[in-house]
Design goal:
The chain is of the alpha+beta class. The chain has 4 domains: about 1-85, no CATH class; about 120-165, no CATH class; about 170-280, 2-Layer Sandwich (Tetrahydropterin Synthase, Chain A), CATH 3.30.479.30; about 295-345. It contains 10 helices and 11 strands. A hairpin with a 2-residue loop joins strand 1 and strand 2 (about 85). Helix 8 crosses helix 9 (about 335-350).
């Protein structure tokens, strides 16, 4: 601003000097003696002064009697064909920007605002609820209004009505206690186990799920932990490690959780409980493995002994049954049965020996056929060698 004022002072002083020296002012007015000179350097003179027109003045200085030297404001003023404008004005977005007008001379702005409002209402008032989903409508995101069924639904535009949709058929999973985390639970025989399990659940009532409990997921986890500790505390350590014990614990935990959640009106349905891991605490894991290995060896030895005992018992029962059958036949015909038993017994004994015992008297000389047969079988083998 100081620099502009300095230019203005120097320009006025120069013009005054030219007028006082008797030189003709190029912007109008005569020589220094033709008339007075104004303070701003404008030439005096009459209305018919013949000096050149000032291009910086409005209208190009064409009005008679108003010829004067241009001030700094005139130099920096941008004048258009329709009147004076500011520097940089008139372009899109500038101070002189105007929307195009309709045929009747009215502005398009109300039409544009109405179209945007109509699109906004259409987009935010129509809601499509898919099968398996539930939706709740609230006033300004706070107070509950009503629920929406599956299909196409209409509400007031946002933010008057806000819609929240959830898939209520999706089965959600919660792993307790999470990865790489130890959760120690006390069994009925005062032993600690590191147990992790999985909770499968879904939303049964979206309204209750959203507005009944402050944090339904956290409530689900706390109820699950309480039910799991109570179920494990009723079991012995060995039963917790077996499949049958795990199945019983899972059923007990699911029933206890569902009863508690229904009492709280949580809108949650527990689909199942699955025990992922049952391990001893990390500090006693090696000792526990040694004990478990010894128990497994003892169980294996017991099982082998039981198998042998069952075989011996089965054989004895078979022999006793056979004896009973023979005895029944013996009672019907004692002589015949006795002779048959004698022959069968001698056949079994003599078939395993080469000796033959005969009575004295008229006996045909004995021919050792079994021995001859063995020698005949052994001869080809020696020739092959």
């Amino acid at each position: 601003m100081q620099r502009v004022d300095g230019w203005k002072e120097r320009l006025g002083a120069g013009l005054k000097g030219l007028a006082m020296a008797g030189k003709k002012n190029p912007w109008g007015g005569g020589s220094g003696g033709d008339g007075p000179t104004s303070d701003d350097g404008a030439g005096g003179g009459g209305g018919d002064s013949g000096g050149p027109r000032n291009p910086w003045l409005p209208g190009g200085g064409a009005e008679p009697g108003k010829r004067r030297s241009a001030s700094i404001e005139d130099i920096f003023r941008n004048r258009g064909p329709e009147g004076p404008r500011r520097v940089g004005g008139g372009g899109p977005g500038g101070p002189g920007f105007r929307l195009p007008e309709r045929g009747d001379g009215k502005s398009w702005l109300p039409v544009i605002i109405g179209g945007v409002a109509l699109v906004w209402v259409a987009v935010t008032s129509v809601h499509f609820v898919q099968p398996g989903e539930q939706a709740v409508v609230t006033w300004f995101g706070g107070k509950y209004s009503h629920e929406l069924d599956s299909g196409t639904n209409f509400t007031a535009p946002w933010p008057i009505h806000m819609v929240e949709k959830e898939n209520v058929t999706q089965v959600r999973l919660e792993e307790v206690p999470g990865t790489k985390t130890e959760k120690l639970i006390l069994t009925g025989d005062q032993n600690l186990v590191d147990l992790s399990y999985l909770i499968r659940w879904n939303i049964s009532d979206l309204k209750l799920y959203k507005y009944q409990l402050n944090d339904p997921r956290n409530a689900l986890l706390e109820i699950g932990e309480s039910a799991m500790r109570a179920a494990v505390a009723r079991q012995q350590l060995d039963s917790v490690f077996t499949g049958a014990g795990r199945a019983e614990i899972e059923q007990d935990v699911r029933a206890a959780m569902q009863a508690r959640l229904d009492a709280y009106r949580s809108g949650i349905q527990v689909q199942g409980i699955e025990i992922n891991k049952v391990d001893p605490p990390g500090r006693v894991e090696e000792a526990f493995k040694d004990v478990s290995s010894a128990q497994q060896d003892a169980d294996a030895a017991i099982n082998r002994s039981r198998a042998v005992a069952q075989q011996v018992l089965a054989r004895a029962q078979g022999d006793a049954s056979e004896f009973n059958d023979i005895y029944e036949e013996y009672k019907l015909a004692p002589d015949v049965t006795r002779r048959r038993l004698y022959y069968e017994t001698m056949e079994q004994i003599l078939s395993k020996t080469d000796k033959t015992i005969v009575e004295s008297g008229n006996v045909t000389p004995y021919l050792p056929l079994p021995e001859l047969r063995r020698r005949a079988q052994a001869a080809p083998q020696r020739e092959g060698e």
